[in-house]
Amino acid sequence: MVTVAEAKRRITENTIALSTEVKTVQEASGYVLAKDVLATFSLPSFRQSSMDGYAVLHTDITNENISLPVVSESKAGGTSKLSLEPGTAIRIFTGAPVPAGATAVIMQERTSVENGVVMIKEFPVAENLNVRNVGQQIREGDIALSAASYLSAGAIGFLTGLNVQEVEVFRKPKIGILVTGDELVKTGEELGDGQVYESNSAMLVAALTKEGINDVEVFYAQDDLTSTINSLELLAIRNDVVIATGGVSVGDYDYVGKALESIEAETIFYKVRQKPGKPLLFAKTKGNHFYALPGNPASSLVCFYEYVLPALRLMSGRNDNFLPSFKLPISHAYSFNGERDEFLKASVSNAQVTSLEGQESFALRSFAVANALIYLPVTQQNVYAGDLVEVHLLPL
Ligand SMILES: Nc1nc2c(c(=O)[nH]1)N[C@H]1C(S)=C(S)[C@@H](COP(=O)(O)OP(=O)(O)OC[C@H]3O[C@@H](n4cnc5c(N)ncnc54)[C@H](O)[C@@H]3O)O[C@H]1N2
Ligand code: MOO
């Protein structure tokens, strides 16, 4: 049995990024850059107005009621060849080229116009007022986004504005899910005696999809050694990571551990000092990583978020791989006994956290409405309302 911190350390130590691939920028959303991307030109590439108003020479505005003739117009998409003579103004719009010779834009709310003459009601006017200068955002040749950057919607927009069309990113892992348990029935079928609907695979596929991991296949094995070995082997050939659920405890029909031994996977750890999710197993062979999650649905999902997801993110090149973690005051007292750290399904709102009713490892009802987990180490077995506790935010 290892501690939570040791289990996380071993996952980090044993996991590296996968190979890279080239994707269009649009397809690369949610991926991680494998190489720096340089700006091939400056942004803005020309001096732009950031307001609708009048382009002027700022030194022409020497008092509060200067009047200037409006001699021409610069609109967005229009030519940047216009130039401003001292003592005149040019009508201009947001995003339009600032004419040569103009050093400021007066927003139109600070002006009044009559008979082609604009009265400027702003004084003094600073140089570059409402002007976006060339390279103000980024200069040609600079690193626009460095390797290991996560491609968020903001990043996709930024790169597209720089006319970047393709990027090299780390590929995401292919996942095989192995469901074990003879008591499990697919939804839609009738439940027999002692049977339950199989829900872990749907839950894990949903969590993987949320992470942008779509190359996922699900196999079902009978509770026997040969079937478990065969399924593990087949899934391993076709995927990078195999995630098994169920059959990893000490019962007579728990075959996942034995099957992993048979295929000579090296156990990196088995059992973590935590509740729920104690029987978590992580093993690897030359080409694959294997996570055997406990069958209890809430245990499975806690282990997925705390260990498997961070590992899959590392494989995808992402270094900020664990759930975002911070301390928040808990809204109520809570205590527990025993020697295992606890993860509690919880709800964060109004800058505090509340653990939810129904923390048992078979129960998903609380998970269904949780947006966070509270992590309480055994050193923090009695907390009082207002105490700071560690909160891990779930990806919703
Ligand atoms: N003698 C001991 N018994 C158990 C121990 C122990 O240390 N000693 N650990 C307990 C803990 S903690 C956990 S967690 C479970 C884990 O057991 P398994 O991983 O072997 O899971 P199963 O026995 O196959 O199933 C547990 C539970 O979850 C339901 N289940 C399983 N798979 C699914 C699925 N795909 N969809 C929905 N529900 C599923 C299953 O029906 C069981 O109710 O072991 C304890 N026992
Ligand atoms: O570790 Mo088990 O997940 O407590 O029920």
From TrEMBL:
Alphabetical list of PANTHER family matching this protein: GEPHYRIN, MOLYBDOPTERIN BIOSYNTHESIS PROTEIN
Provenance organism: Dyadobacter subterraneus
Keyword presence, Cell inner membrane: no
SUPFAM superfamilies cross-referenced by the UniProt entry: MoeA C-terminal domain-like, MoeA N-terminal region -like, Molybdenum cofactor biosynthesis proteins
Xref: Pfam families: MoCF_biosynth, MoeA_C, MoeA_N
Protein name as annotated: Molybdopterin molybdenumtransferase
Enzyme type, top EC level: transferase
Function of the molecule: Catalyzes the insertion of molybdate into adenylated molybdopterin with the concomitant release of AMP.
Keywords assigned: Magnesium, Metal-binding, Molybdenum, Molybdenum cofactor biosynthesis, Transferase
Swiss-Prot/TrEMBL catalytic activity: adenylyl-molybdopterin + molybdate = Mo-molybdopterin + AMP + H(+)
